[in-house]
Amino acid sequence: NSNSNLPERDNYVNNAFGYVKNPHLDLLSEDILYHFDLGTRTHDLPSMFGDVKFVCVGGSPNRMKDFAIFIQQELGLDGDGSDITDICAGTDRYSMYKAGPVLSISHGMGIPSISIMLHELIKLLHHAKCKDVTIIRIGTSGGIGIEPGTVVITDIAVDAFFRAQYEQVILDKVVIRNTQLDQKLAESLLRCSKEINDFPTIIGHTMCTYDFYEGQGRLDGALCSFSKEEKCEYLQKAYIAGVRNIEMESSVFAAMCHLCGLKAAVVCVTLLDRLQGDQITHSHGVLTEFQRRAQKLISSFIKKQLHMC
Ligand code: R2B
Ligand code: URA
Asked: What is the pLDDT of residue 285?
């Protein structure tokens, strides 16, 4: 049906040449990673990033800086945190920090923002000749029917109709992409959390939406055309479909990592239970402690992978 506008399944050949799947890239004499303010002519990407084994991404620049400083301490690396500086300081689109084999990058909010970051990140890993990289999104989310502060490890990302797919518009076609995440990685992360035994952690489906308010069935946006009953009915349906949390990046993250052959996980803490309300009412201190939970889990996982514990 190549001439119709009906959705198509992806038909990428999984070529063996690393993470990028784009024959046109080889024709470029220089590749400028515009939103990172990095490039293949201006920067020695293999020497800057060749040792990267873990990439952690999250929405906020400050949170990703804190995470890099935390990882530097946890891994016992040299430095007191003052040497953790923004590699993308030449642009304020994204921030990037490196602590040994761990790269920590902000991606902003929503699918378009993370998608641009992932294109440039995957090319960066390719140019730097990185191998065996694990990528983890550490995020926040709204829970459904679970205690706020619970960490949800995503098995599959679903859309607003609870379908395990991501629709990418390419030229004038809708292409449907798989949003399955690495099952073994999700289970190792869950085991890690059970060992820490400090906060509740579960595996579940994550619903990825295009908006925080109407798109997540909130009654407290600037616009709302549905009743409280309709909202509750929708969230109950989501719960029955296996959805345990809602956020705004997991579907395209899962789809792109899957197509590029990157081992990927999504680990989000829930800031509230959407069956109880829409506003995030916990104090700043409580929310910060919640966000540290996912960071603790990832740090302990990385240490294990590096045979440090
Ligand atoms: C979680 O939190 C942000 C919205 O507050 C969004 O980036 C997401 O996925
Ligand atoms: N992030 C979201 O996308 N939704 C929430 O409810 C909380 C954080």
From this structure: 98
Choose the residue to mutate in 212, 218, 249, 281 for probing ligand 2, maximizing ligand atoms within 8 Å of C-beta.
Answer: 212
Distance in angstroms (rounded) separating the CA atoms of residues 90 and 143: 36
CA 279 to centroid of ligand 2, rounded, Å: 10
Structure-token pair, residue 233:
């009915």
Looking at residue 18, what is its pLDDT?
85
The rounded Å distance from CA 157 to ligand 2 centre is 15
Q: Could you report the per-residue pLDDT of 151-172, keeping only the tens digit for each?
A: 999 999 999 999 999 999 999 9
The DSSP code sequence of 198-230 is SS-EEEEEEEE-S-SSGGGT-SSSS---S-HHH
- Looking at residue 9, what DSSP letter applies? E
- 268 neighbors 136 (Cβ within 8 angstroms): no
Interstrand relation of 201-208 and 173-178 (parallel, antiparallel or unpaired): unpaired
Q: Which regions in the chain score pLDDT beneath 50?
A: 1-3, 14-15
* Distance (Å) of CA 146 to CA 89, 166, 247: 39, 25, 15
- Asked whether the beta carbons of 60 and 108 are under 8 A apart, the reply is no
